[in-house]
């Protein structure tokens, strides 16, 4: 799930699944699938898709801040676990 959240954040920041994929070291199709599965879990789309172009929709904008908080909390969790 954290991979999907990270993919969502990166895609939102760059308006690109391809750039998000490069930053995660994954294929574009893998990132698209992560985000698609996240959208299925949530029950709604996070991006407006127009051909090869994406942009956050209202749902995506509403969740981006929370996604960043979850990612930060997860990082703290991992740091604590490694101590």
TrEMBL record:
| Residue span(s) of domain HTH lysR-type | 1-57
Q: Please give the superkingdom of this protein's source.
A: Bacteria
Q: Which UniProt keywords apply?
A: Transcription, Transcription regulation
**Is Transcription included in the keywords of this UniProt record?**
yes
**What Gene Ontology molecular function terms does this protein carry?**
DNA-binding transcription factor activity; transcription cis-regulatory region binding
Q: Which PANTHER family match?
A: HTH-TYPE TRANSCRIPTIONAL REGULATOR (PTHR30126), LYSR FAMILY TRANSCRIPTIONAL REGULATOR (PTHR30126:SF91)
Q: What is this protein called?
A: HTH lysR-type domain-containing protein
Q: Which organism is it from?
A: Vibrio inusitatus NBRC 102082
Query: According to the entry, what is the taxonomic lineage of the organism?
Result: Bacteria, Pseudomonadati, Pseudomonadota, Gammaproteobacteria, Vibrionales
């Amino acid at each position: 799930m954290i991979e999907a959240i990270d993919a969502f954040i990166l895609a939102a920041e760059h308006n690109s699944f391809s750039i998000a994929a490069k930053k995660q070291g994954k294929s574009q199709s893998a990132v698209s699938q992560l985000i698609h599965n996240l959208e299925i879990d949530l029950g709604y789309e996070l991006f407006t898709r127009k051909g090869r172009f994406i942009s956050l929709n209202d749902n995506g904008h509403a969740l981006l801040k929370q996604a960043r908080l979850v990612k930060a909390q997860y990082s703290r969790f991992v740091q604590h676990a490694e101590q």
